[in-house]
Design goal:
Layout (H helix, E strand, L loop, with lengths): L1 H15 L1 H18 L2 H5 L16 H11 L2 H6 L3 H9 L1 H34 L32 E4 L3 E5 L22 E5 L4 E6 L14 E5 L2 E5 L14 E5 L5 E4 L3 E2 L9 E5 L2 E8 L4 E9 L4 E6 L16 E4 L4 E4 L8
Parallel strand pairs: 9-13
Antiparallel strand pairs: 1-2, 2-3, 3-4, 5-6, 6-7, 7-8, 10-11, 11-12, 12-13, 14-15
Helix pairs in contact: 1-7, 2-7, 4-7, 6-7
Length: 347
């Protein structure tokens, strides 16, 4: 009888801590699965179900096997001679105890079977599945009417904060220009904001704002201290009018745009430059006028508003990078890196 009590107490403790047991086992299973799938993770794909190598039986599984082999009378015999005398003297009570012990063993086996099923289930269900670089289409057209989101375009620039994506400018050859709006600019003189949480677009600025730039194709855009800064760009026809101006856009409830007044050694007016901000300097690298391609480096002090030349590339005279436009520029903590882009005769 004492053995039965101990077994029941043990099983009740297991049930009370079931969540902890399952979580622990699942965690161990995950790491076994993770170590065997390093190659899959490198390829960016992880199987939803992964086979696990055979493992030794858990203490719970061994207990199940033992309980199923128990006989109620074996447990009675283990309780000593005092119980045997009591059984001989009181047959009715003995039969009742036999039934009770038999029922207790059945209940214990059922409880352990439930625990075993939980553990088995945790082996085949991963706690987390990695999905790196997953692309999702934002179906904002399902909640926005036509005109409440930007129409198709190319040559625009986008940048994102933690909560919002911003889209500036762009071009669509099928667009009919508004001849009453600033002599019919063919480009989209628009700044849009897309809210990731609400799945909705909002038009912050448009052509009716007289300070909006006209060179809004293949310009460069960066986010700095909760404002947007654009630099360079071309009007239409492309390359006929280029810009080396900087514009600042506030992006709050009452968005505004203004042209920065700058001095110093200004970069060439061109489109397709790459820009990045480091230590309150705006660096611009490369670009094209439509005829000449450069990879020259200039920087603007955002406090003094003074431009200065940092480096003039001469690939024909030394081992300098080729001129390019529409490339990407990033700061990695130590270096400013320029990546690919369009060259004079190749990509």
């Amino acid at each position: 009888m004492k053995i039965l009590k101990l077994v029941i107490i043990f099983m009740l403790n297991l049930l009370n801590n079931l969540e902890t047991f399952v979580a622990t086992f699942a965690n161990r299973s995950y790491f076994r699965r993770n170590s065997s799938m390093e190659q899959d993770e490198q390829d960016g794909e992880v199987s939803q179900q992964q086979e696990i190598a055979p493992r030794p039986g858990t203490p719970v599984e061994r207990l199940i096997e033992e309980i199923e082999g128990f006989d109620a009378m074996d447990l009675i015999n283990d309780n000593g001679s005092g119980d045997e005398e009591s059984v001989n003297e009181e047959n009715d009570e003995d039969e009742e105890r036999d039934n009770t012990r038999s029922n207790t063993v059945e209940i214990a086996a059922w409880i352990l079977k439930q625990l075993h099923d939980c553990f088995e289930q945790s082996k085949t269900q991963p706690t987390y599945t990695f999905t790196p670089h997953r692309l999702l289409k934002c179906n904002y057209k399902a909640v926005c009417e036509f005109g409440e989101y930007p129409t198709a375009r190319s040559g625009h620039r986008i940048i994102a904060s933690e909560s919002t994506l911003y889209s500036l400018g762009g071009y669509n050859p099928s667009r009919v220009p508004n001849v009453l709006s600033r002599d019919g600019c063919m480009l989209f003189q628009e700044l849009w904001a897309y809210n990731f949480a609400t799945n909705r677009w909002k038009l912050l600025l448009h052509a009716n704002n007289s300070d909006m730039p006209r060179e809004l194709a293949s310009n460069a855009l960066v986010l700095y201290n909760n404002v947007l800064i654009s630099h360079g760009g071309t009007g239409y026809p492309f390359g006929e009018t280029c810009s080396n101006d900087c514009y600042v856009y506030t992006i709050g409830e009452n968005a505004q745009v203004m042209k920065l007044g700058v001095t110093g050694d200004l970069p060439t007016a061109q489109y397709g430059p790459g820009i990045v901000i480091h230590n309150d300097y705006l660096y611009t690298i490369g670009g094209t006028t439509g005829f000449d391609y450069t990879c020259d480096v200039y920087r603007l002090n955002l406090h003094t508003k003074i431009w200065e030349n940092v480096y003039i590339c001469r690939p024909d005279m030394r081992d300098d990078p080729e001129g390019r436009y529409r490339h990407e520029v990033v700061y990695d903590g130590s270096y400013i890196c320029a990546w690919r882009g369009h060259f004079a005769y190749r990509l």
